[in-house]
Specification:
By secondary structure, this protein is mostly helical. The protein has 7 helices and no strands.
Length: about 200
């Protein structure tokens, strides 16, 4: 069995842990807002919905929600970091049979991932973190697109794969212009004060 690079394994484990925590809080929130209702069905419904998302973190959240319902105290990890290459090859072969992915859909996916990441970082955080996080998102997409544990269909997997080079491209573009964005954020309020 081939193990993935240590940095990719740590990223995957951290993202899986984050998904497990978010799934637990999702369940707690749902149970407190709707006591006595069919929580399992609602959670499984959300997990099924997330399985259609081409964002790797959504795929992990789908797994975590399902695990939280079916086996909440199970000792096994959410995803295995060592997957036989033959299993990945079978998935890749299936995915590559699909028609080419539309570039406009890939661009839209990259924009969604960037917006979500920027929103998570918050308005007042250091902008130099965004390119780094985008590279992490690209690495996560690359690690997960052919992972047998995720519930994604082949078309979703293809979208995930196609997003990797575009996410890396976007990360490079953000790396090149982040000092100017910081400067413009600092200058705008100062210039705006003089205009009143």
């Amino acid at each position: 069995m081939t193990r993935m690079r240590a940095s990719d394994a740590m990223l995957l484990e951290a993202a899986a842990s984050e998904a497990m925590s978010a799934a637990w809080w999702e369940r707690v929130d749902l149970e407190s807002r709707r006591p006595g209702e069919g929580h399992a069905d609602l959670i499984l419904g959300k997990a099924a919905e997330l399985a259609f998302s081409p964002i790797g973190r959504d795929q992990l959240m789908s797994l975590a929600l399902e695990k939280g319902v079916r086996d909440p105290d199970g000792p096994e990890p959410l995803v295995d970091t060592s997957v036989p290459p033959a299993e990945r090859a079978v998935i890749a072969k299936r995915v590559f049979r699909h028609a080419p992915h539309h570039a406009s859909e890939t661009e839209a996916l990259v924009v969604r991932i960037e917006e979500r990441t920027a929103r998570q970082l918050g308005r007042d955080t250091r902008y130099d973190l965004l390119p780094q996080r985008m590279r992490q998102e690209a690495a996560l997409q690359e690690v997960l697109w052919d992972h047998p544990a995720i519930p994604a269909g082949d078309d979703v997997r293809l979208a995930m794969l196609c997003s990797v080079p575009k996410l890396l491209e976007r990360s490079e573009a953000l790396s090149d212009d982040w000092p100017w964005r910081i400067l413009s954020r600092w200058v705008a309020p100062v210039v705006g004060r003089g205009a009143s």
